[in-house]
Specification:
By secondary structure, the chain is an all-alpha fold. The chain has a domain at 1-68. The protein contains seven helices and no strands. Pfam families: Phosphonate-bd (PF12974).
């Protein structure tokens, strides 16, 4: 179980050593959905896209018990040395990518954790730093399980 999941449970009154018989960290989220469907595990934490897709593919077989606040996912960063006019053009192009047929096709072609996005959102390093503080603190409290 990753640090974000552990932090979510802790903030909702759960104690890992008391409330769970066994905790595992499994790398591939589609595998987690399969384990629930097979009855091999009682519950999992997955990304919103994985959960939404699983609910569509397996209607009535899964339940979402809770959702966490969103955190920034993948990032596209621009160099601070880039001329501001060029950075503004690139930013505008990325934020409006979903407004053209070719842009929609480009978003649809994305694979992996970032797949399923239908638009890009402007964020800041401050949002990422909040997520990194949480991840760092959780990893110190609950180190990743060794294989």
């Amino acid at each position: 179980m990753g640090p974000l999941a552990v932090d979510f449970l802790k903030n909702h009154g759960f104690v890992m050593s008391r409330d769970f018989k066994q905790v595992q960290e499994i790398q591939y989220q589609d595998t987690l959905v399969s384990l629930v469907l097979e009855g091999a595990v009682d519950g999992v934490f997955v990304a919103p896209k994985i959960a939404d897709d699983a609910m569509k593919v397996h209607p009535g077989k899964l339940r979402i018990l809770a959702k966490t606040d969103p955190i920034p996912g993948f990032a596209i960063a621009l160099s601070r040395k880039m001329p501001q006019a060029q950075a503004n053009k690139i930013t505008e192009a990325l934020l409006t990518i979903n407004q053209s047929t070719s842009g929609k096709a480009a978003l649809a072609a994305v694979v992996g954790q970032a797949s399923g996005n239908t638009a890009l959102t402007k964020t800041s390093s401050e949002e990422y730093s909040k997520a990194m503080v949480l991840l760092d603190a959780a990893e110190k409290l609950y180190p990743p399980l060794t294989k």
